[in-house]
Write a structure and sequence with these properties.
This protein is of the alpha+beta class. It has 2 domains: about 5-15 and about 170-300, Immunoglobulin-like (Sandwich); about 30-165, no CATH class. The protein contains 4 helices and 21 strands. Strands 11, 14, 15, 16, 19, 20 and 21 form a 7-stranded mixed sheet that branches. The chain has a 5-stranded mixed sheet with strand order 4-7-9-8-5. A 4-stranded antiparallel sheet has the order 2-1-18-12, with no helix packed on it. Helix 1 runs parallel beside helix 2 (about 115-125) and helix 2 packs parallel to helix 4. Residues about 1-30, about 35-55 and about 105-110 have low confidence and may be disordered.
């Protein structure tokens, strides 16, 4: 997929287009944090119980907390059943990290790209998930439109032990982000709003394809990406624009903006280059404890 980052003049940045009974058999109490309920999907046609493991035992794990979550995978023509179940489990893992650590991917669009989702989960869960158990599987055929064929969704319910961070992270150092929209047609302009509770140096990583990462901030026109405490900024800045494009040979592309705030400037471009992989990015980020993070998932479609 390709993008044009238009900063006064064109600067090209080509980047490529739920509840069960759970028994506890340890002398210490295991507390389970439950995912908040959401509205059910309309027009449910069929529900098939696939696997049931309601009476499992959870062990006490020092420094970890158990989180109960669900994850979904959509059965599509280009996916095997194994792929769909892997999607569902990865979504559950990501939710567990979101609940325990507060790092959220604000979109369900990542389910459209199994490999990208898997790599995002690896980025966010490295060294954090220490154990997991599947409670049950559900299969649902739903109809979103009377004129459409049913969509099959597999839902897994899990309990996941998430290791609590022992880092010196400042709990009052946080980022809040939002985009102008999350579903784009090629050529449309994206805007990202960023709020920081403390002065920070912002780096924006664009994660796309299966395992590709490019850095779009800092850039030649904004060398350090500074944001002041309690300030709300927009990227790109006034007078510039960020146009999103999908490769011509693809129908759509799912991508993520990964925003990282640091109290001291780190030149990621010197360390990683203009483009890198999620694994290499993760290696660098694991060495940095005190950081604030946010993720924004979005989709780019080619015009029909």
């Amino acid at each position: 997929m390709g993008k044009k980052l238009l900063l006064g003049i064109y600067l090209l940045a080509i980047v490529g287009c739920s509840s069960g009974q759970i028994k506890v058999d340890n002398i210490k109490k295991v507390e389970i944090i439950k995912e908040k309920k959401v509205n059910s999907i309309p027009k449910e046609k069929k529900i098939e119980k696939i696997k049931q493991n309601e009476n499992m035992n959870l062990e006490y794990i020092e420094g970890a907390k158990w989180v109960e979550v669900t994850g979904e995978g959509i059965l599509e023509t280009n996916k095997t059943l194994e792929d769909v179940r892997e999607d569902a489990i990865n979504n559950a893992r990501l939710k567990a990290i979101e609940i325990a650590y507060g790092v959220e991917v604000k979109s369900t669009l990542q389910m459209k790209n199994s490999k990208l989702l898997s790599n995002l989960v690896n980025l966010k869960t490295n060294g954090k998930i220490v154990k997991e158990n599947i409670i049950n599987w559900d299969k649902k055929d739903i109809i979103l439109d009377d004129n459409e064929f049913p969509i099959t969704i597999y839902t897994v319910k899990m309990v996941i032990a998430v290791k609590e961070s022992k880092s010196k992270k400042d709990k009052f150092f946080n980022l809040e982000t939002k985009m102008n929209k999350y579903d784009f047609v090629s050529g449309e302009k994206a805007e990202l709003e960023i709020f920081s509770s403390k002065k920070a140096y912002i780096t924006i990583f664009n994660i796309y394809g299966i395992n590709s990462v490019s850095i779009i901030l800092p850039n030649d026109f904004n060398k350090k990406g500074i944001i002041e405490a309690n300030e709300r900024i927009k990227f790109p800045t006034e007078g510039t624009s960020l146009e999103l494009y999908c490769d011509k040979d693809k129908k759509e592309s799912t991508e993520v903006f990964y925003i990282v705030g640091l109290k001291e400037f780190v030149d990621f471009k010197s360390m990683l280059g203009e483009r890198t992989t999620i694994e290499k990015l993760n290696e660098v980020l694991l060495e940095i404890d005190d950081k604030a993070e946010a993720m924004e998932g979005y989709m780019v479609r080619n015009r029909k």
